[in-house]
């Protein structure tokens, strides 16, 4: 089974990488880019029968830093 | 308007970061993790009226390295 985990910075947490992208888009002539935030997608190829609770556990313990990041699990 | 761009490595391109995550999950006792690939999500807050063609252009010129990465645009 395939699961996708989306990890994004929580609101209010500074995102210098996103800010750099926003600036670079402006330099390339793209107007109207008000804000950019960058996050991660982690695609997991898991053994069948892995529960969502287990994936949640993976996120809490390794994939996301829950102090500053939030995550969303999508099971395909 | 809000657009999300998902950038992932193409199949066949080595992903050492994903491999490191797979190994770390194994070390933490999570069995049955067959493969992990890591990609990026870029959330763009754009002026209303920005076309998908323009977002496509942003991807081709800055957000993705189309030699090794593919991208998918999602407009919210």
TrEMBL record, chains A, B:
It comes from Loktanella gaetbuli. The keyword Ligase applies. Part of the FGAM synthase complex composed of 1 PurL, 1 PurQ and 2 PurS subunits. Gene3D superfamilies: Phosphoribosylformylglycinamidine synthase subunit PurS. PANTHER family: PHOSPHORIBOSYLFORMYLGLYCINAMIDINE SYNTHASE SUBUNIT PURS. Its main location: cytoplasm. Pathway: Purine metabolism; IMP biosynthesis via de novo pathway; 5-amino-1-(5-phospho-D-ribosyl)imidazole from N(2)-formyl-N(1)-(5-phospho-D-ribosyl)glycinamide: step 1/2. It is found in: Cytoplasm. Coiled coil: none annotated. Its EC number is 6.3.5.3. The keyword Nucleotide-binding applies. GO terms for molecular function: phosphoribosylformylglycinamidine synthase activity. It catalyses: N(2)-formyl-N(1)-(5-phospho-beta-D-ribosyl)glycinamide + L-glutamine + ATP + H2O = 2-formamido-N(1)-(5-O-phospho-beta-D-ribosyl)acetamidine + L-glutamate + ADP + phosphate + H(+). This is Phosphoribosylformylglycinamidine synthase subunit PurS. Belongs to the PurS family. Keywords: ATP-binding, Cytoplasm, Ligase, Nucleotide-binding, Purine biosynthesis. Part of the phosphoribosylformylglycinamidine synthase complex involved in the purines biosynthetic pathway. Catalyzes the ATP-dependent conversion of formylglycinamide ribonucleotide (FGAR) and glutamine to yield formylglycinamidine ribonucleotide (FGAM) and glutamate. The FGAM synthase complex is composed of three subunits. PurQ produces an ammonia molecule by converting glutamine to glutamate. PurL transfers the ammonia molecule to FGAR to form FGAM in an ATP-dependent manner.
